[in-house]
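In this supplementary section we document a worked example of the pipeline. Step one takes a protein sequence of length 313 as its only input; no multiple sequence alignment statistics are reported here. Step two produces a three-dimensional model, which step three serialises into structure tokens for compact storage. The input and output of this example are shown verbatim.
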Amino acid sequence: MKILVTGIAGFIGSHTAERLLKMGHNVVGVDNFCDYYSLNLKEMNAKAVKDKGAEIIKMDLRTVEDYNQLAKDFNYIFHFAAQPGISQTSTFEDYFTNNVIATKNLIDFALECKDLKLFVNIGTSSIYGLEATYPESVMVKPASHYGVTKLAAEQLVLQKSREKQMQACSMRLYSVIGPRERPEKMYTKLIDLGLQGKPFPLFEGSDKHLRSFTYVGDIVDGIVSVFDNEAKVDGEIFNLGTEVEHTTQDGIDAVAEVIGKDIKIDIKPKRAGDQTRTKANIDKARKILNYNPQTTLLESVKSQVEWFKENCV
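The serialised model returned by step three reads:
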């Protein structure tokens, strides 16, 4: 199958592209290589995937003319590209253009791909709001520009399924960790600062926040499970993550155990829009996709520390 992966130089997109290549698919990836975080890391991710056989095209999904670089013969589209996370440096325009306008443009392109079997949108647990412990059927209450715009993107994709214009689904991901995690994310910062003996900035009260910290390999398992299940997943939303909850403090302790050093803490003011609890309700994914994440928090951290030491120290 010929597959388009957007955001291929990113954390989860690069891992998914590698899995698709291992499965024998023809992978074309696009990325705008923006400087939201280290371009060196993105280029390293891209090289790893390219070396395994992917074709990578630099383009901006917000720019309609850039789509002329793509053939219209894709069988699957996996849409990871987005303005990620909750960041004080990102404007509403950043979230809106990257998450809504870019997705609308990609959908328009997808509708021109006559052999498209499935469009897989990559969503987020932030769509649920301050607590993300619910089944996919609950009314959502996003509490950040990120969550609001990712919900809009998800609904734009599912609209085309409802209109019978293409088969599509959306995966809401929970607190993904592992090798290649973005530099500003919790575990990368913990590992980096911990190894240097520098204090980790912790938002006040967030040590008690509960998370479904999920290993990236387990997330990819769920994403690729759509193959041969296109009719079952069409029009559906699936939570992907672990049902096991850990506090932020558990994560800090796990990193300290693996690197063999205590983590110094620098308390910062609370951050608006930050989720207090996420616990992936994966009953639907387990039933329909046979999804069953198994990697423990400590195993995940060990893998990430090993990768960090090999590539970032």
